[in-house]
Amino acid sequence: xxxxxxxxxxxxxxxxxxxxxxxxxxxxxxxxxxxxxxxxxxxxxxxxxxxxxxxxxxxxxxxxxxxxxxxxxxxxxxxxxxxxxxxxxxxxxxxxxxxxxxxxxxxxxxxxxxxxxxxxxxxxxxxxxxxxxxxxxxxxxxxxxxxxxxxxxxxxxxxxxxxxxxxxxxxxxxxxxxxxxxxxxxxxxxxxxxxxxxxxxxxxxxxxxxxxxxxxxxxxxxxxxxxxxxxxxxxxxxxxxxxxxxxxxxxxxxxxxxxxxxxxxxx
Length: 267
Known about the structure:
It catalyses: S-adenosyl-L-methionine + a thiopurine = S-adenosyl-L-homocysteine + a thiopurine S-methylether. By secondary structure, the chain is α/β, with parallel strands linked by helices. 23% of the residues lie in helices and 29% in strands.
């Protein structure tokens, strides 16, 4: 069960059915149930195209402040370097920051442009090899690997198992009807007792963004509860004059921060 209630329930308003577009998704109504609504769909190749066209406004040029603030949740009590997976990583500086703390870091990214820029823009020497559905980029000066390919192909044949997953807004980039498959891929490479630090987005549901999609803490619990204990760490409330709200023309938005602990198998 979630240990902190999702605070945006009072903000949810009836769906304006005149604003529907194509593709199915879910609208969480605050109690873990969902209503059907129409939202655009896009496969992972759509993200590749965004990188090709330079439409990457979500990319940060700094380390994510949630990761910096909450790093203790994944490091405390672990006594040394961890193996950490960052799915749909783009060219995030989070990977380099985690490496600098002594961890073994693996990213997964669909765009070869993003992966190439991560290494070249940061002057990181690397080699690359083909391995099944992935091209694996390996840094030669630190413990960093990036698998370039489809995250749904992830399993321990290619990487892992991992101590930690840093899911930084990755799940909100997955179509609603693909989320169970995405969760299966993540959990297939997470050790028993492993940890997931996750951020999602929740915002006014009458406004349909292509991405990021709304994924509430209750929806995360439904997806992961069979194998993980789920806890809401924080709900970051963004004012309507924040960059995120202004860019997407939203009256409000919340960025939930969640901590998931994979359950140990009972022998």
